[in-house]
């Protein structure tokens, strides 16, 4: 018996799909036709009826659309975490996006000195800007850029302390997500971790007494994703710097999030800046490009010129360096900080963090009827106050008052409905990512900007609830 005679030939199916071939290319569509025919053949073997032609062509179209869709897709981040590591952290400023596109599109003077025609250094593209913004314009300040802050810490430790000891307070041995733990990074950098003090209290004499002939540097790590409260004591950066310098050792500060602007002046919780750390006597600071700075993924090492020069000679620097698009975005982002008056409006991270709660509430009121209509009788949708988090380990205990659409299932046992709602929002053309809490599905509207409101609303018609 051969049921296959009922199935059309691949070529005959392809003839009916000129538009699909135009959109996705012949090779991809051919593969989809083969896959659907194979599925139909398998169905026939199991006694299923032969799919009619319309069904077959629709299934091929769906398969081609799925295969042709990018894996890295834009989403609406309505999780309430502004700098969401799993959703790509900072959204870049338009100026940074334009600079990235230009650098990507054409040759650029990445390591080429346009003045002399000689070889240039890619770090010079941002080193002067960082000296200006972070180092108060000091000619003794330089910078080098690597893939992320984890790389910045690894490289700094390896370049300055390989085979020697780094002194760190026990209260600062942080884990930034599973793969980055200070003790592990020290080991990988071939540096011996010299822990001092206790979990809650470390004193100046702990630093002074730890110094021995094997000590290479003193280090402070910003406890960016947790807070030690209660009976605590940490040593002021100025004091650690004095102790380090008296022993002829460098003092390194890993800031993690590192914003260059005064958060308090924007009504946000105060966050230590690299400027402050350097002014307090730190010889080097390391921080991320895509946390509070609001730029591309990168690790910035800024500080004493001689130490930066030593770091740049380390072979790991070559392995960890960034490419032209990253540097383009970073330079453009840093340039925005030169104009503090317009920073809030141009830098999405700062704009989102400082968004007035009344704006978010008004947006909630405008969206509520449409979301309610999309969910029908499945859930009651209300506009409610909530708290956003900054995210990426920045300011872990601080919350920003915000407003959410809260979708509360009408069913007695809400579990299944909640999952169905969450899945449906995630299945939209631009997936919407919210979160389930207290038996309701929450959409924190802080990161839904008014410019995207129409696009958000338009796609609600496509919400498919199972
Ligand atoms: C986030 C963070 C890191 C890691 O930075 P990435 O840019 O994510 O690699 C390191 N140290 C501290 C203190 C941090 O907050």
Coarse structural class: alpha/beta
Task: Give the strand order of the largest sheet, numbering strands 1, 2, ... along the chain.
Answer: 3-9-8-7-6-4-5
Q: Give the overall form.
A: globular
Instruction: Give me the CATH superfamily of the largest domain.
Output: Type I PLP-dependent aspartate aminotransferase-like (Major domain)
Provide the β-strand percentage band: 15-25%
The number of E-state strands comes to: 14
Helix content: 40-55%
- Unreliable spans: none
CATH topology of the largest domain: Aspartate Aminotransferase, domain 2
Bound molecules: pyridoxal-5'-phosphate
Largest sheet: 7 strands, mixed
The count of domains is 3
Instruction: Give the class-level CATH name of the largest domain.
Output: Alpha Beta
Q: How many individual helices?
A: 19
The pLDDT mean sits at: 94
Rg, Cα atoms, Å: 27 Å
CATH architecture label name of the largest domain:
3-Layer(aba) Sandwich
Q: Could you give the distance between the termini?
A: 39 Å
């Amino acid at each position: 018996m051969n049921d296959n005679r009922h199935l059309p030939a691949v070529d005959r199916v392809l003839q009916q799909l000129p538009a699909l071939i135009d959109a996705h290319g012949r090779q991809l569509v051919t593969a989809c036709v083969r896959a659907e025919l194979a599925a139909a053949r398998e169905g026939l073997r199991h006694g299923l009826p032969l799919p009619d032609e319309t069904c077959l062509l629709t299934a091929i179209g769906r398969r081609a659309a799925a295969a042709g869709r990018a894996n890295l897709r834009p989403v609406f981040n309505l999780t309430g975490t502004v700098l969401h590591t799993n959703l790509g952290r900072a959204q870049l400023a338009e100026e940074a996006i334009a600079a990235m596109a230009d650098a990507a599109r054409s040759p650029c003077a990445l390591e080429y000195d346009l003045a002399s025609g000689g070889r240039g250094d890619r770090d010079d593209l941002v080193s002067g800007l960082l000296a200006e913004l972070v180092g108060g314009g000091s000619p003794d300040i330089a910078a080098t850029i690597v893939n992320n802050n984890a790389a910045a810490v690894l490289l700094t430790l390896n370049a300055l302390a390989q085979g020697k000891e780094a002194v760190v307070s026990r209260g600062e041995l942080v884990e930034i997500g599973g793969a980055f733990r200070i003790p592990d990074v020290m080991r990988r950098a071939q540096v011996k971790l010299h822990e001092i003090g206790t979990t809650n209290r470390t004193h100046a004499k702990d630093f002074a007494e730890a110094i021995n002939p094997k000590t290479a540097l003193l280090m402070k790590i910003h406890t960016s994703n947790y807070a030690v409260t209660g009976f605590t004591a940490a040593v002021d950066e100025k004091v650690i710097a004095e102790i380090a310098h008296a022993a002829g050792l460098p003092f390194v500060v890993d800031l993690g999030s590192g914003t260059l602007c005064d958060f308090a002046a924007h009504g946000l919780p105060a966050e230590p800046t690299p400027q402050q750390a350097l002014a307090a006597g730190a010889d080097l600071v390391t921080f991320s490009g895509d946390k509070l700075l609001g730029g591309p993924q990168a690790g910035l090492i800024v500080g004493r010129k001689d130490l930066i020069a030593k770091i740049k000679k380390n072979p790991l620097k070559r392995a960890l360096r960034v490419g032209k698009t990253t540097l383009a975005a970073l330079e453009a982002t840093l340039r925005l900080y030169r104009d503090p008056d317009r920073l809030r409006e141009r830098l999405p991270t700062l704009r989102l963090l400082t968004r007035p709660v009344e704006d978010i509430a008004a947006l909630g009121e405008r969206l509520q009827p449409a979301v309610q209509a999309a969910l029908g009788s499945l859930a009651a949708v209300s506009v409610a106050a909530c708290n956003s988090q900054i995210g990426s380990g920045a300011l872990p205990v601080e919350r920003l008052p915000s407003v959410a659409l809260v979708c509360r299932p009408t069913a007695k046992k809400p579990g299944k409905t909640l999952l169905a709602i969450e899945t449906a929002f995630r299945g939209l053309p631009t997936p919407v990512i919210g979160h389930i809490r207290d038996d309701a599905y929450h959409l924190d509207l802080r990161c839904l900007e008014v410019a995207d409101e129409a696009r958000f609303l338009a796609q609600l018609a496509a919400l498919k609830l199972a």
